[in-house]
Amino acid sequence: RKAVHEAEYGNILVPIFADVCAIDVIEGEGARRVALRVAPGAAPGVEDGLRRREPSIPELMLEEADDAALKPRFFERLSESDLRRYAKDDDDLAFLRKLGVRSAITVGLKARGRVMGAMTVSVAWSGRRYGEDDARFARILAGRVALALDNSGLLADLERVEEARTQIARTLQHG
Known about the structure:
5 strands; five-stranded antiparallel sheet; alpha+beta; elongated
């Protein structure tokens, strides 16, 4: 149920606001992609490539939980040097070039004082480009996404506790 709930955010944003939406959550020392949505019109292999690509959450978002750290990483015009900076290696750089991303925004997901991940939206084949208003919208939306993710995590925790309690009650009743 949680994965379906998280995927809904990508469905809301793509293709109306973004060509690609990825939501990554922090787990231990790394990150895990929990949602990915790609708009129609992508080159063949783009969605599979993005699914295989290691999620990246900006270091500043991982290290500090203050509002300055959560300021969107906003690229109005993504340049070759930007692609080189975020590519993991030469193959990844070639893949990033293939995407043809024109503009991108990565914003931290923070709820109840805890940074839990990042949401990245980008535009490419639609021909659009993001502006400052889009970056502000992404930041506001990220707060809502973070709260929903946190709530779904709390619900999952409650379901696990309830299941454990039920098992204990069954064991006691059986004994």
